[in-house]
TrEMBL record:
Ranges annotated as DNA-binding: 36-55
Entries under PANTHER family matching the protein: HTH-TYPE TRANSCRIPTIONAL REGULATOR BETI, HTH-TYPE TRANSCRIPTIONAL REGULATOR RUTR
Name of the molecule in the record: TetR family transcriptional regulator
Recorded coiled-coil stretches: none
Pfam annotation, one family: TetR_N
Domain of life: Bacteria
UniProt entry keywords in alphabetical sequence: DNA-binding, Transcription, Transcription regulation
InterPro entries: Homeodomain-like_sf, HTH-type_TetR-like_transc_reg, HTH_TetR, Tet_transcr_reg_TetR-rel_C_sf
Keyword Transcription regulation: yes
GO terms for MF: DNA-binding transcription factor activity; transcription cis-regulatory region binding
Annotated organism of origin: Streptomyces variegatus
Tagged with keyword DNA-binding: yes
């Protein structure tokens, strides 16, 4: 009985350590994408030996932190109303999704250094699926173009969002204008050829 309790205690301690490391990684990398494992371990209140007992490399730590951020982002996106007018739904998605990208842009920069493009796409599968459904609905109703693949259109949206983060880092764009810029750019890209691009701001 004592052995079972001891094992359960060790497992609980290990889970607490892992959670502390992942949380510290998200916070440290969120401030500085080049934060070291030593900094992350210190912020988590553990030693490097403990960190390496749970993660084999910096890439694994970054992956876990990015996964955590995506999971929390999915909780936010789950609350977004993507029904009704697809133009308005797209604007709502961009407003919410942009804030998530804005908050996680330093963490994303770390992920882009450490993880493969395929892994980053895999992590973003949840948000991508939402947009795919929304774009398909907009195409069916004539609001969005049908001459380009849905996967390409989704990629365009997320590429523009990530580019906005880069522009902010470079000092060429402010966070307060990012959502409007993204919405205007994406609506222009999604509008059927020959159709007028919907107004942003007061419109879609």
């Amino acid at each position: 009985m004592g052995s079972k309790n001891s094992t359960a205690t060790k497992r609980a301690d290990a889970l607490r350590s892992i959670d502390a490391i992942v949380q510290a990684a998200a916070e440290c990398l969120g401030r500085n994408p080049e934060a070291s494992l030593s900094e992350i371990a210190r912020a988590a209140g553990v030693g490097r030996v403990t960190l390496y007992a749970h993660f084999n490399s910096r890439a694994e730590v970054v992956d876990a932190a990015m996964s955590r951020a995506i999971d929390r982002g999915n909780e936010v996106l789950d609350a977004i109303d993507l029904t009704g007018d697809p133009l308005l739904a797209l604007a709502r998605y961009i407003e919410a999704g942009w804030h998530l990208v804005d908050q996680a842009r330093a963490l994303l920069a770390a992920a882009q250094r450490e993880l493969s493009a395929g892994r980053i796409r895999e992590l973003h599968a949840g948000p991508a699926a939402r947009v795919e459904t929304l774009v398909a609905r907009g195409r069916a109703g004539g609001a969005f173009r049908t001459d380009l693949p849905i996967a390409w259109m989704v990629n365009v949206l997320h590429t523009v969002m990530h580019s906005a983060a880069e522009e902010i880092r470079a000092g060429r764009l402010t966070s307060e204008h990012a959502a409007d810029h993204i919405t205007a750019t994406v609506l222009a890209a999604f509008t059927p050829p020959g159709a007028p691009v919907p107004e942003t701001g007061g419109g879609a």
